[in-house]
């Protein structure tokens, strides 16, 4: 199973010896994290890092890491981004929906 990170390098090489959930919540390529809603409510937003995000380190919780499929996420970036409603943070137009996602617990 090929795990791709930035510059098409395997994530194992890019994140060598850094378990995303045990490295001080480092936000590296492929890390799945969660943060509070932008509206200040009690909800939670989930995100996947497409590149290292030092600004998120130790600020938001890393809860997992992509083991495959990063190429699909990078393809999503090539699409036109849909603007979000400023109040609800929901897509204001036609959105792209993920129909299936598999979660593996190791």
From TrEMBL:
<dbReference type="GO" id="GO:0003755">
    <property type="term" value="F:peptidyl-prolyl cis-trans isomerase activity"/>
</dbReference>
<dbReference type="InterPro" id="IPR002130">
    <property type="entry name" value="Cyclophilin-type_PPIase_dom"/>
</dbReference>
<dbReference type="Pfam" id="PF00160">
    <property type="entry name" value="Pro_isomerase"/>
</dbReference>
<keyword id="KW-0413">Isomerase</keyword>
<feature type="domain" description="PPIase cyclophilin-type">
    <location>
        <begin position="9"/>
        <end position="77"/>
    </location>
</feature>
<dbReference type="InterPro" id="IPR029000">
    <property type="entry name" value="Cyclophilin-like_dom_sf"/>
</dbReference>
<protein>
    <submittedName>
        <fullName>Peptidyl-prolyl cis-trans isomerase, cyclophilin-type</fullName>
    </submittedName>
</protein>
